[in-house]
Amino acid sequence: MSDRYEQGMKVRRSVLGDAHVDRAEAQKTPFDVPFQDMITEGAWGTVWASDGISKRERSMITLALLAATGNFEEIPMHIRATARTGASKQDVLEAFQHVAIYAGVPRANHALKLAKATYAEMENDA
């Protein structure tokens, strides 16, 4: 594997946790390996590995972008990641308030619903 892939896997594990990454890796098939490699190198080995902004800020931006674009499926995963990135519940609320103003209340409302459910699950798991 490339250095960028190795860095991406390291960052991915630090943000999402070993259990999540191990489950995702176990679900890979020959069909999606090229895609998984691309996101590991691109998203995790390039964007998330950059030291240009903090992991906290990246979490806030990622959650806002997911909500603004209606890509709700990954919001719970990135809410769980806030436990490792340092983004607080208040940070997430602020990000989703920006979404409400700039991308629409329904998207922000749905994102908040997902965040609340995910935080409740996290508290129950603790």
TrEMBL record:
<dbReference type="InterPro" id="IPR052512">
    <property type="entry name" value="4CMD/NDH-1_regulator"/>
</dbReference>
<dbReference type="GO" id="GO:0047575">
    <property type="term" value="F:4-carboxymuconolactone decarboxylase activity"/>
</dbReference>
<dbReference type="InterPro" id="IPR029032">
    <property type="entry name" value="AhpD-like"/>
</dbReference>
<feature type="domain" description="Carboxymuconolactone decarboxylase-like">
    <location>
        <begin position="35"/>
        <end position="117"/>
    </location>
</feature>
<dbReference type="InterPro" id="IPR003779">
    <property type="entry name" value="CMD-like"/>
</dbReference>
<dbReference type="Pfam" id="PF02627">
    <property type="entry name" value="CMD"/>
</dbReference>
<protein>
    <submittedName>
        <fullName>4-carboxymuconolactone decarboxylase</fullName>
        <ecNumber>4.1.1.44</ecNumber>
    </submittedName>
</protein>
<keyword id="KW-0456">Lyase</keyword>
<dbReference type="InterPro" id="IPR012788">
    <property type="entry name" value="Decarb_PcaC"/>
</dbReference>
